[in-house]
Amino acid sequence: MKKLIIIGFDGTIADTSPGILYCMNTTAIAMGYTAVPHEALYNIIGVSLEQGFKDLYGMKDDEIEYAMNNNSKLYSMKGEEMILLYDGIDEALKKLKDDGFKLAIVTQKNEKFIHNILGVYKNIGEHFDMVCATTVDIELEKSDMLRKVCDELGISEEDSVFVGDSYVDALAAQEVGMDFAAVLYGLGFRSEEETGQYKNCRACLRNASEIYTKLSKL
Length: 218
What we know:
Layout: E1 4-7, E2 14-15, H1 17-30, H2 49-57, H3 61-77, E3 84-85, H4 89-98, E4 102-110, H5 111-120, H6 122-125, E5 130-134, H7 142-153, E6 160-164, H8 167-175, E7 179-183, E8 201-205, H9 210-213
Helix pairs in contact: 1-3, 2-3, 7-8
């Protein structure tokens, strides 16, 4: 049985796409670009926000700093309010915690944003033993974040599982020798067939409740 369950935030604990799209489109429109539809977000799963602006709107390098700064301000004012927790996630996390599992979040969201969010959803935040996010000065790769969580909580990669919704998450777990559970209800993977190439994928989760029902048995 696993001892540590590490979970991504976007597309796994919460649907953050409405706020992300609103802030990116609002920023882009102010800069003279055309808004993109919601489904366009599937094309930038796993890439940085900076690359997302380039891919979705064709922004030039000298425009990115303004776009990033404006987007950050918008997200802190509006984007965080548009987050929707997935049905069943709170109960699943509580059951895992009651069963003795260690829980952690790994996210490439800015540390300030994720702690603000968890401050609002205190019932979710209180389940976690550790939150690993990016800072203004340091942006770690997800594989580095997974190692950091294991080191700080004193649990090996082999005794841990990473839960995420994208190929970036699967590859990060694979890089550190960690099992992976693929979320099919988020923004990334849409079917079990898409996860077949990742040999470390031990489970596919069709809803947030299965974070408990399937992972507690690994």
